[in-house]
Amino acid sequence: MNAPLRRKPSPVDAPPWQLGDIVDELRAAREEWRHTHDRRPDKGEREFPSRDALSDIVSKLCGALFPMRLGPADIQHGCSEDFYVGHTLDLALRALLTQVRLELKHLARPSEPDAETLEARARDIVQQFAAALPGLRRLLDSDVEAAFRGDPAAHSVDEIVLCYPGTLAIIHHRLAHTLHGLGVRLLARIVAELAHSSTGIDIHPGARIGRSFFIDHGTGVVIGETAVIGERVRLYQAVTLGAKRFTVTADGTLEKGAPRHPIVEDDVVVYAGATILGRVTIGRGSSIGGNVWLTHSVPPGSVVTQAFSRNEVMENGAGI
Amino acid sequence: MNAPLRRKPSPVDAPPWQLGDIVDELRAAREEWRHTHDRRPDKGEREFPSRDALSDIVSKLCGALFPMRLGPADIQHGCSEDFYVGHTLDLALRALLTQVRLELKHLARPSEPDAETLEARARDIVQQFAAALPGLRRLLDSDVEAAFRGDPAAHSVDEIVLCYPGTLAIIHHRLAHTLHGLGVRLLARIVAELAHSSTGIDIHPGARIGRSFFIDHGTGVVIGETAVIGERVRLYQAVTLGAKRFTVTADGTLEKGAPRHPIVEDDVVVYAGATILGRVTIGRGSSIGGNVWLTHSVPPGSVVTQAFSRNEVMENGAGI
Amino acid sequence: MNAPLRRKPSPVDAPPWQLGDIVDELRAAREEWRHTHDRRPDKGEREFPSRDALSDIVSKLCGALFPMRLGPADIQHGCSEDFYVGHTLDLALRALLTQVRLELKHLARPSEPDAETLEARARDIVQQFAAALPGLRRLLDSDVEAAFRGDPAAHSVDEIVLCYPGTLAIIHHRLAHTLHGLGVRLLARIVAELAHSSTGIDIHPGARIGRSFFIDHGTGVVIGETAVIGERVRLYQAVTLGAKRFTVTADGTLEKGAPRHPIVEDDVVVYAGATILGRVTIGRGSSIGGNVWLTHSVPPGSVVTQAFSRNEVMENGAGI
Amino acid sequence: MNAPLRRKPSPVDAPPWQLGDIVDELRAAREEWRHTHDRRPDKGEREFPSRDALSDIVSKLCGALFPMRLGPADIQHGCSEDFYVGHTLDLALRALLTQVRLELKHLARPSEPDAETLEARARDIVQQFAAALPGLRRLLDSDVEAAFRGDPAAHSVDEIVLCYPGTLAIIHHRLAHTLHGLGVRLLARIVAELAHSSTGIDIHPGARIGRSFFIDHGTGVVIGETAVIGERVRLYQAVTLGAKRFTVTADGTLEKGAPRHPIVEDDVVVYAGATILGRVTIGRGSSIGGNVWLTHSVPPGSVVTQAFSRNEVMENGAGI
Amino acid sequence: MNAPLRRKPSPVDAPPWQLGDIVDELRAAREEWRHTHDRRPDKGEREFPSRDALSDIVSKLCGALFPMRLGPADIQHGCSEDFYVGHTLDLALRALLTQVRLELKHLARPSEPDAETLEARARDIVQQFAAALPGLRRLLDSDVEAAFRGDPAAHSVDEIVLCYPGTLAIIHHRLAHTLHGLGVRLLARIVAELAHSSTGIDIHPGARIGRSFFIDHGTGVVIGETAVIGERVRLYQAVTLGAKRFTVTADGTLEKGAPRHPIVEDDVVVYAGATILGRVTIGRGSSIGGNVWLTHSVPPGSVVTQAFSRNEVMENGAGI
Amino acid sequence: MNAPLRRKPSPVDAPPWQLGDIVDELRAAREEWRHTHDRRPDKGEREFPSRDALSDIVSKLCGALFPMRLGPADIQHGCSEDFYVGHTLDLALRALLTQVRLELKHLARPSEPDAETLEARARDIVQQFAAALPGLRRLLDSDVEAAFRGDPAAHSVDEIVLCYPGTLAIIHHRLAHTLHGLGVRLLARIVAELAHSSTGIDIHPGARIGRSFFIDHGTGVVIGETAVIGERVRLYQAVTLGAKRFTVTADGTLEKGAPRHPIVEDDVVVYAGATILGRVTIGRGSSIGGNVWLTHSVPPGSVVTQAFSRNEVMENGAGI
């Protein structure tokens, strides 16, 4: 036997994979995709918004909206605070302008309007967004107060702003909803997903939500695109305000666009795990119990609970 | 034609928003809020704990508690490990002292005790917290072992420490619970929310949890402030140990403080999606099935499952 | 009065905790654990994979797989893209090789094969993993297209790649599943938990999932180790494909290894909150309604909904 | 026993050094030093300014002084600029206040004045420093203009601010000199050394320098503590304005405090490598040639050059 | 007098400086400057190259030119290296294009050519710069070899590339000189100052330097704008190749543009501290001794040393 | 002619350079170099020390040597300090071990000893280096005290450690000299260049320097490889202790290895700009004046000054 010619590898050897080949195959896969989706290979620079950029923008907007709570550690009331707010807002809005340009260019693909028109639109969007911020701050103040009233465990409004995932979710939503209304829906969606990722609360930017809104705990909450929520509404974890999706259209695709999520009127409370589906109306002041499954409207003042309050079987229990 | 006087903007033009105006309006909104909440505009430095600081502190404490698993890559048993633990603990405890001071000052607002008394209290709190750490490590070891025994997919205890969200949640909880017991409830809450954000497991720092506790998967678990959990208890995802919140007091606010969450005795298992509400007792050794909705106590050894084991309707199925 | 000899502390005093003692006690706790678990105190360097390293590797692989969407902002089609893909892949695969070595060494504890054999195995694993990447890209393209078809709110495939948590989850899963199949199960698990933490979607790396898979919203989804999912399957949030865990073996431990999670055939849709437990088969083309609790097989084409479509009690409602 | 029992080390073995012993010996060395220098081992927190902190402060002050040139990339004239200046100055001055406190506490060691007096002094120092900044900006503008006039290679004043090491040195010096005048000499020194390290220009903070000062190239320039420089003075690289140090006092120490460096009057030029030593006066409008060694005063309008204009020996040259 | 009503400040009080006033005064100073220098206050975005950006670009170019020495730690010959070089170059050239645009726009101020012409020029410049890189690498290889031959202390060419400040200086110079030749002189200057700051070697980008150039030690070297240096020239620290600046023009300004620095022919060595001034020629193969002061040409093969080889006075020496 | 077919480029077009071609040409240049220098293209991983890694190591060693001055801001005497020192040293020494391995492998090229022998040597070197640290600390204390005694401007020893470039240089040198003595000369050289770059002081690691050494100002100091410096020596800026390089060997190369730099005995002072060349001896207690050029030995107690104390020509001065 004269064979073991090939010694075993050691950590200093070159790795055995064929880097060049894999790069070639990955290019082939990309080209196939681009061909299928009719992407032009010579399009030039990438035109697409960036999740990281939006994360930074939202973080700056949070600081500008709540400088003493969500801003840096060492600012103060008065001059110091205004300079911080002004500078931070300046950075955030310019960065947002860049992202808005990217979305507009991305959407512009088929018809390709001229660059100056896009620029004018982008500026107009950010200007309107900027003008909306003071109003947003007041709305968010109402949400914070609602959370304070709604949670027996809260000791101060400051705690609400700093610790509650529901606060984080509603700040993101109100920013995202404003962007959505201004037509930059992809940016809005990215902002919403930033909150979804860190809180488990998934609110579509299209949802319309009144003042003094509060979500407690929050993990698993889903609120759909066309949902309409009144004032002083309170939700708990794992509540779904969804579409009733069982009907499928003739060609096998799902219906689009039309109002398909619930209307929840003022002063409604929806407890944990409740599922409300379809364009139903939950009348003002109603209370929807935990785990309730609801696919029809209920009148104002309803109190809905599960039918089976003692539904479980005690397999070896002697009784209760 | 003599009109297009106003040329279209280009990306090098100054942005069109009125930064100064928006800053003024945001200040007005803040002043309104401060007026409503009776905040003193000349209060001086911000006194509030920082979520980022606590995140860093917890990360250091994790390293100090489990140096070979959650510490840096290149330490070793022996001297090297002790130096790492000592230095990391030193940094963490000092940083914690700063945060404790901030919470005490924040809470001190109405009565304003003197600075030295606050300082003495802050030091006392951190000293007690530090002294509790070796005991916490032993408790956490019991949790890791419980996870290893409880999950057929686990191959080693190391995997439990490194990969399981339930481990992350219980480490955070045991730290938060200790802080809560020492009176720094805001810090405790922030620590709890750090875990909530990255695991979807929401345990109130007040909850009392015995040794050898294990949560599998975990997303959507909610454990309330006054819950009491015995030893060797196992929970799955989306379990709620909550308050029964339907009763509302006369003045429209929610009741506070009193025991209102379940007592779960030793050796109980609660399967995914089960909801247990109110100050009920789940007797030792019981097993609560998936999706069960339970609002009353059950005796030791109970096995509770859903009443409707074949409840679903087959709309077009010929049978099963 | 001659007593307050001991002045109150000020922030510049040394902290009062006994750092040395706590370090000693923590060491004692570690030694106890190591003794119990038979760890050798003189083992030398730490041999364990790093979550942070894997997070960085996955992030690089995402960039290499989708350079124009998940890569850096300023690359372009053509040369630029290939250089980026090649360099990023090079970094990712080398870093992965390091992590694979760490897992193999960790697993090697009892029998201790020689270093060169481990090295050869590690290289072989990464080589195979690298070779699988172009195929993975194609599979993922099918998933992205499925998401686009499945969600009426989606405006472009780009949006799917950038914003959808379900996309993030399936990218992580397909990478994790490949690692799992190559025997590095701890790495696979860590990759799965990275997705779990940021999306709330918990897919065990062992689960086999066919092409064109789509999870919408996603928070709370749990898919077990031996689940088998066909092509064109769609899941919504909080769906569980779990084991039926009520039976416990005689010695009190849980059964291991055997197939214990559902088989979901092609073209099935499972709506939000549905729970399917045990080794049951959901026949091709079936539709499982929201919140359904299912522990038996259903034939192809079944439409399963909750039995109680109007189960809730209206406590004060006049009717509906 | 004849046995190479001890195998050779491999990279995974524990390192052979005795970490604990070295730490002990280093502690012994520190204790010896502290004993010699009468340092109190129980002094509590470190009270010493930080070079990194000052580097950051100076960088912020540069931005606040020259926002469009030394500030961040994306600010603009008008509101945006003022907000940036205000916020940056706020951060810089607060950080400076912290450093001033540290120096005052450090210097306070022997006599230990009360904390509130120190605090009042620290605030007074920073207030005066802040009030001096607009004047400093005007002085620096005169320096920039002087550089532009003095260097035939300069194309714009902007280039001077951005590229010239002499500009960096004079900005640092004017800040350091102001701090020096306010009594925080250690901070002043650290600021001077920051410039020294990056430009090779070593100006003692005590040196008094008039407006329109310009140093070209600059490496190796040294300007002593009691030097006095008039207006419109120009220096080249490697110029020394030093003390004449040959005389040593009887007890072997060097003389302190008294004026011992040159006075350079208005409109003087000193060429590269010239050395001027002692409390001599270089009369207004004089020109001191390269490499000149000067230890006595010269009257206004002097032109001093080396005596040996053809001093070199041509060893093998036939002539020139 | 019963007055000290005003308590002493404590660290939590607001700082006493008038931030708003200082910001106003700084703005006044800026406006004065802008008025003097005729800057248009409504100019829009800043158009100026960034030192930090160029530092990063040069660092990337160094990596692309010498991937195994100045690139990241873990690349290899072959595919891996080319991908790294390609990707790094791609990033560097795009970033450079941005900086070139900024300089062109800055210079364009008076005449304001249209944006597309500037863009075309910018692209042309970077294209030519990119095409020059392979030639630069070869030139730099000759410099490295010259250093290896010229320094008895050097053990390998790798050491030269990694450790020698002279190498750093010549890499920067050859890049800066190329930029200078392409008309982006401000970028060139910034690159030169980057080297000046970290090595103390100050070479004007305009200087023309032949292959196999070596500077040893280097601190204090100054080479002027119109200097011309042949092949295989060697310089030591503190050598000046400067202009003879004593003559001043009638209107008090310094002469510009014309050749005014030395010509150093092939194979010349200039020892430490030598100063050569004016448009003189140092003939091929000459050797200029340490500290020599030379203001006239010398023929090929000259050996010039100081006239005073024993010039010093021994004040108390008995003899030598 | 109606032709402007080729539109002008805009910033979104792809850049015009041929990235692929340049990468190819750069590879060709590298291959040529490797061919010339006989580098093996299939050598595997890079084996070369890293400047950044050494910078970090030195920074950690500085912290471990002077924890209260060069360590982080918040440590204290006692336990806290020891834990910091131990952990930091642990990190530094392990990182150094990695760098030592890299240098040994690099040097090993021709003869290629086995891996385990190299590993043993590397460990031995770091062990000896570690053991030398306490002695180094004591030596450095003597240097700090010498600086304090030698500079009339110094107010405290702490200022010396924090602000003086001479201190930085001697710390680096003593570390580098130790590494040099242990045979890792490339590491030593890199450490020396780190100091050179930030202080302008260039000390070859081979130079032997006695205790209580002080360099003031320092820019431009050069100390050669075989220089020997006694105790209590003081140098000022721009002093050269160099080789006398005029003699060149017959084959045109420079002589190597032999002692060729000055011996400076105890208690010597060398003033700014003095140049001492060759293997001469400066006798104990001598004083060498500024700008003196010295190429021969002087006996103990010599005071050497420039011969021309009034050498300059006053061109238009009426007298002096």
Detail the topology: elements first, then pairings.
Six copies of one chain form a homohexamer.
Chain A: H1 19-36, H2 51-65, H3 67-70, H4 79-107, H5 115-150, H6 157-163, H7 165-181, H8 185-199, E1 202-203, E2 208-209, E3 214-215, E4 222-223, E5 228-229, E6 234-235, E7 240-242, E8 263-264, E9 269-270, E10 275-277, E11 281-282, E12 287-288, E13 293-294, E14 303-305, E15 313-314
What would your notes on this structure say?
The structure is a homohexamer of 320-residue chains. Chain A has helices at residues 19-36, 51-65, 67-70, 79-107, 115-150, 157-163, 165-181, 185-199, and strands spanning 202-203, 208-209, 214-215, 222-223, 228-229, 234-235, 240-242, 263-264, 269-270, 275-277, 281-282, 287-288, 293-294, 303-305, 313-314. Chain A folds into 2 domains: 48-200, serine acetyltransferase, domain 1, CATH 1.10.3130.10; 220-313, Hexapeptide repeat proteins (UDP N-Acetylglucosamine Acyltransferase, domain 1). Chain A has 8 helices and 15 strands. In chain A, helix 2 (51-65) runs antiparallel to helix 4 (79-107), helix 2 packs across helix 8 (185-199) and helix 4 crosses helix 5 (115-150). The model of chain A is unreliable at 1-5, 308-312 and 316-320 (pLDDT under 50). Chain A has 320 residues and is of the alpha/beta class. Chain A starts with 18 loop residues before the first helix and ends in a 6-residue tail after the last strand. In chain A, the strands form 3 sheets. Chain A has a 5-stranded parallel sheet with strand order 1-4-7-10-13. In chain A, strands 3-6-9-12-14 form a 5-stranded parallel sheet. Strand 15 (313-314) of chain E pairs antiparallel with strand 14 (303-305) of chain F.
